[in-house]
TrEMBL record:
Any Pfam family the entry gives: HgmA_N
NCBIfam families hit by this protein: hmgA (TIGR01015)
GO-annotated molecular function: homogentisate 1,2-dioxygenase activity
Domain Homogentisate 1,2-dioxygenase N-terminal: 4-272
UniProt entry tagged with the keyword Manganese: no
Domain Homogentisate 1,2-dioxygenase C-terminal: residue ranges: 274-421
Protein name: Homogentisate 1,2-dioxygenase
CDD domains per UniProt: cupin_HGO_N
Annotated family: Belongs to the homogentisate dioxygenase family.
Family annotation (InterPro entries): HgmA_C, HgmA_N, Homogentis_dOase, RmlC-like_jellyroll, RmlC_Cupin_sf
Keyword check for Oxidoreductase: yes
Enzyme class: oxidoreductase
Cofactor: Fe cation
Native species: Sphingomonas japonica
Length: 425
């Protein structure tokens, strides 16, 4: 059990040992108990105040004390780079990861499916799947390339980070900031889900415009863990993702040794059941941006580097309206996953734990069966129950990895076959 502090990107102060946190200054000459002060910057020092994100950490040893990193040879499917072949404009879909035959921890199970932009551009996102059955016992992972969003689909996660412990179950999400070391334990023994890397500007809550001051994801429902640390002088491997490759080095102690911290850059969790879904009460299906939980803006106003969007349980009441997602072509690129239930645009083939890709300008929308059912439906109020899908919409087209190209469903196009031709008068 962990305690959490409510609020999104709040300036928090937390100490696991009373007296560890300096008062009134960040870097005293001698921090309490011989701790080391370290600033962790998530934005440039000079970022405007409303964008500026950083925390001060008080730790048992400085992060700087470590040997050189060497290439890490595990996790063969994590960050292999994407295919160099010309990118086909095809729609792609994947089944959930197969059941495991060998013990594998979260890190070694990470399987990169889609990525766009080079992490060195400080733009773009990558979509990974994981399916693990072993705790990360004597090692930690640190992502220098991105903030990391966990979207579990099966099995709880106990994510131990430098800045506190986070427990999440499917239906909840968690974010660990860029550069924060973490260890993933599996309280249920197995876990499967999605991880989204965001290389770009930090995820934030979207502006609400005419919706007003409340709604969608409310800031108070984000929870940041209190300080927690382990005092463990045992060999600990540190695997780092840096510029798209994995690197490793050994420490003689656990680096999860931050005894106190303060600032507005920290991990958090959020229960998607708290998402206040807003939709039509008259007619027409609003653009799916109405379901944006988090956005990472690009430099072009309104054109997101990444939007994290959910399709939660909700009432459908639109009159004289085709209610599921309509047919469309989008200048933005859409990666979708399913946490549970059935997605209202896909009658079959899009399973929980699966993934789909509709890149820039790909014609997509309801499959034939969903189109037929929704076109003939009696339009009484109807509740979509139990379904939880999500989308990572990005202005940068996604490139699938070789593994993704080799494992996609064989005939996804067939879900849009044989639509009857319109009959003109
Ligand atoms: O299924 C999709 O492709 C995502 C989507 C959802 C929606 O409600 C409207 C449009 C849209 O693209
Ligand atoms: Fe779409």
């Amino acid at each position: 059990m962990t305690d959490y502090l409510p609020g999104f990107a709040n300036h928090v102060s937390t100490e696991a040992v009373p007296g560890a946190l300096p008062i009134g200054r960040n870097s005293p000459q001698k921090p309490a108990f011989g701790l080391y002060a370290e600033q962790l910057s998530g934005t440039a020092f000079t970022a405007p105040r409303h964008e500026n994100r950083r925390s001060w950490l008080y730790r048992m040893r400085p992060t700087a004390e470590h040997p050189p990193y060497a290439r890490y040879r595990g996790a063969a499917r994590f960050a292999p780079g994407t295919s160099d072949e010309p990118l086909a404009p095809n729609r792609l879909r994947w089944d959930p990861m197969p059941d495991l035959s060998e013990p594998v921890d979260w890190l070694d199970s990470m399987t990169t499916m889609l990525a766009n932009r080079d992490p060195a551009d400080l733009e773009g996102v990558a979509v990974h799947l994981y399916s693990a059955n072993k705790d990360m016992a004597d090692r930690v992972f640190v992502d220098a390339d991105a903030e990391l969003l966990f979207v579990p689909q099966h099995g709880r996660l106990d994510i131990r980070t430098e800045l506190g412990r986070i427990d999440i179950a499917p239906g909840q999400i968690a974010l660990v900031p860029r550069g924060v070391k973490l260890r993933v334990l599996l309280p249920d023994g197995t876990a499967r889900g999605y991880c989204i890397e965001n290389h770009g500007s930090l995820f934030r809550l979207p502006d609400l415009g005419p919706i007003g001051a409340n709604g969608l994801a409310n800031p108070r429902d984000f929870e940041t863990p209190v300080a927690w640390f382990e005092d463990r002088d045992e060999p600990t491997e540190v695997v780092q993702k840096f510029m798209g490759s994995l690197w490793t080095m050994m420490l003689d102690h656990s680096p999860l040794d931050v005894v106190a911290w303060h600032g507005n850059l920290g991990p958090w969790r959020y229960d998607l059941a708290r998402f206040n879904a807003v939709g039509t009460v008259s007619f027409d299906h609003p653009d799916p941006s109405i379901f944006t939980v988090l956005t990472s803006p690009s430099d072009v106003p309104g054109r997101a580097n990444a939007d994290f969007v959910v399709f939660p349980p909700r009432w459908m009441v639109a009159e004289d309206t085709f209610r599921p997602p309509w047919f469309h072509r989008n200048v933005m690129s859409e990666a979708m996953g399913l946490i549970g239930g059935a997605y209202d645009a896909k009658a079959e083939g899009f399973a929980p734990g699966g993934l789909s890709l509709h890149n820039l300008m790909a014609g997509h929308g309801p499959d034939h069966a969903s189109w037929l059912a929704a076109s003939e439906a009696d339009l009484k109020p109807h509740k979509i129950e139990g379904a939880l899908a999500f989308m990572v919409e990005s202005c940068w087209p996604y490139r699938p990895t070789e593994h993704a190209l080799a494992t996609s469903q064989l005939d996804y196009d067939a879900v849009w076959a044989d639509f009857p031709k319109a009959r003109l008068p």
